[in-house]
Amino acid sequence: MKAVFIAFDQAHLEMIQSILDHHNCRGFSYWENIQGRGSVKGEPHYGSHAWPSMNSAILTMVEDQQVDGLLKLLNNLDKQKEALGLRAFVWNIEQSI
After folding, report:
1. Which of 10, 72, 85, 96 is the most exposed place for a label (fewest CB within 10 A)?
2. CA 5 to CA 13: how far, in whole Å?
3. What are the backbone angles phi and psi of residue 27, rounded to the nearest 5°?
4. Where are the domains of the chain?
């Protein structure tokens, strides 16, 4: 089992939910109005007058075999609108109840 953390511009929400549905990722936790700044070339998302956009994040647990396909679709979405920003990170899940 893997945990996939997805941080993204709020404009991506519906597409990311569609990608999760496509991969049968039913369960997830969602946070909106998250502030941040990309580590490479992303613009800040602070919700301020100067930087008005905001991020959101989703954390989902998936089976190991789902990860590559999920990341591929997320990467394709990011490439379509690179200026918005989207990052995904994967962790091993040791146990769950």
Report:
1. 96
2. 14
3. -90, 135
4. 2-92
Distance between CA atoms of residues 80 and 43, nearest Å:
17
CB 70 within 8 A of CB 19: yes
pLDDT tens digits along 4-62? 999 999 999 999 999 999 999 889 999 999 998 877 777 788 888 888 888 999 999 99
Query: What DSSP line would sit under the chain, residue for residue?
Result: -EEEEEEEEGGGHHHHHHHHHHTT---EEEEEEE-B--SSSPPPB--SSSS---EEEEEEEE-GGGHHHHHHHHHHHHHHTTTT-EEEEEEE-----
Q: Structure tokens of 92?
A: 């091993």
pTM of structure = 0.91
Q: Which CATH class is domain 2-92?
A: alpha beta
Closest CA to 11 of 59, 55, 70: 55
- Residue 74 has a pLDDT of 97
